[in-house]
What we know:
It contains 27 helices and 21 strands. By secondary structure, it is α/β, with parallel strands linked by helices. Helix content is 44%, strand content 12%. Helix 5 (136-148) runs parallel beside helix 7. An 8-stranded parallel β-sheet has the order 1-10-9-8-7-6-5-2. A 6-stranded parallel β-sheet has the order 15-17-18-19-20-21. It has a 3-stranded mixed β-sheet with strand order 11-14-16. The termini are far apart. The chain folds into 2 domains: 3-11 and 57-327, TIM Barrel (Alpha-Beta Barrel); 415-757, Alpha-Beta Barrel (TIM Barrel).
Amino acid sequence: MVKSSVLGYPRIGAEREWKKTLEAFWSGKLEEPDFHRQLQEIRLNHLRKQQEKGIDFIPVNDFSYYDHVLDTAAMFGIIPKRFAYEGGVVPLSVYYGIARGTKDAAASEMTKWFNTNYHYIVPELDGAKPVVTENRPLIAYREAKEKLGIEGKPVIVGPLTFLKLSKGYDKSETDAWLERLLPLYVQILQELKREGVQWVQIDEPILVTKVSADDLRRLQTIYGRFAAAVPGLNVMLQTYFESAENYTDIVQLPVQGIGLDFVHGLAGNRQAIKQFGFPADKVLGAGVIDGRGIWKASLREKLELLEELAECVTADRLIVQSSCSLLHVPVTVNKEEKLIPELKEALAFADEKLDELVLLTKAVNSGKAIVADELDLNESALQALKQSGERNRSDIQQAVATISAVQPERSRPFSERHPAQQEKWRLPIFPTTTIGSFPQSAEVRKARQLWRKGEWGNERYAAFIREQIDIWVKLQEEIGLDVLVHGEFERTDMVEFFGEKLAGFAFTQNGWVQSYGSRCVKPPVIFGDVAFEEAMTVKETKYAQSRTGRPVKGMLTGPITIMNWSFVREDITREQIAYQLAYALRQEVEALEAAGIGMIQVDEPAVREGLPLKEEEQAEYLAWAVKAFRMTTCTVKDTTQIHTHMCYCEFHDMIDSIEAMDADVISIETSRSHGELIHSFELNTYKLGIGLGVYDIHSPRIPRVEEMTGMIERALRVLDPKLFWINPDCGLKTRGFEETIASLRNMVEATQLARAKHAIGAI
Length: 763
């Protein structure tokens, strides 16, 4: 019989219970025993739901107190020296210190989990002496079995993936580090086997990226060691997010199952099985339900795929599963009451995906006839959305086809624009600015809520926003910033705000997903053709500019970021979606310029996260991503200064593309990985304006002047002082009022010290 499985379930809960519990604990409103108890209740509810739905293999140890990679590091005692860890089970104070920083120690670097919107905490191996501090998978397995009678499937981040995603060691030491870690993994697995565990899911998503000959050798070592040390334990070697590289080598590893992504890696994995077959002694975990997207699957198409796979794999060796963890999608569609029917009926969040998995498993085992009605309803829902007017706007499609046929370019190159802009703005050396948002206090959030509920009228709400702008324009002037922002107090989210004002978008009420830690986002849904309807940011920006003699930047989110931070339609290419967004945003840029705003920031923090995992596909993606940005910004005057911002990423492999965007100034998040990025500029000359974030806004700690001065000085070794800006590494929306002011004052003081040291006049 075919079985069903899930690779992981969302942590946050349908009402974001997980997020609220974490934040209550961090704020001191919840004692540690109650904290553990509440998280256990949330965790068990998630397991119970999968049990009641009828999933055969239910994952355990996929739940986390913050991040699953951090969990793995903590399980092995891999704790940065600065946190004064003394051994044993890692206390919550140290665990959360690594993630969030403390008064005395900076947080560890945070970066994207492959090409998703989720961020993990990067393990730091430097100086660590790994040891098993506690067997987290075993604890999770026991809990599920004792509390709910569930024979869980423990989930563990694999050794090769863990090493590849870590930092703080020379790559020549990889084998040595592997030898330190393997005994610990073996200990974990042996204890699981003694407990009676049947299947263990070992996640190795690194195997969908380019795998070297050395790494293939390491794989043989890793899984050969496991097979010898833990005979009889079933290991599902799990890949996801793309097709597996080196398929023939991977399927020969001494494991009992191989999990493959047949959604995002469909073409490559399907071709590999068709060409090379699948081993007769292994179970195939067929990831046919999209763990990253929100659309209902075409169940008939999925059944055809499963029938195709069944030609290579017998029923007792086939598991129908999600393509990856459901961590990346909201919990349930059931709570959505305001979506248009044709859209709601075409959606499937985590709980609905569980239903799809169970239905597909039932159909494979008992025949399509038994689920005929469900298949008809599924097809009808998909067709209704396909035929909707929102997806068939010929005016938008024709206009975008016309402008995308032309290579977008500014009227003059940067070398000629820059002197004109400097003559206009007369800024000092090392201009200071922020990334855009300022703290959104409880008062701001309450005002927005009252307005959305209709308890405040439009004018009262607009007056409140103007008051906030007044406060922060004055504060920015007092602090000594050179280029100001209006603060974005009217915005809930940098993508949602624009989506609400553009055609082709829809918004859920409870479609939250985890971004990092307790930070949850509610991505918009791009389900139709995107179109500009009216000016979106002009009113607030123009008002702020009227309150100061210093320049105020207009603030927009760029087309690639809006796309990558949304759930997007699947009936047209992502490139086409990007161009539709660019066309709409171009009209907003032109409206700002017409209103007298001469600095416009078009943020693209998510460009790199959309980079395909396959190297051979990356150049094409970057080409149209750059084109979309330039389509957005290319029509402005030479003296209008275009800024952009990027964050959360490593940029060393796309410096050329960043420069090709032709923004006059780019600010880059780099405070947690400052040295790595500066090293990129040691190898690559950058000729446009640039600001490297000099302090980490993701941590509540106030950075010292000396810390920022050190970052500035190192950057100036490789960057042109005449083109260098100073700013925080990201927006300040989530920070507190007092800490923001104190941090910015320190930043300005560090800037003044740098100006005194590098006094070369105005730039």
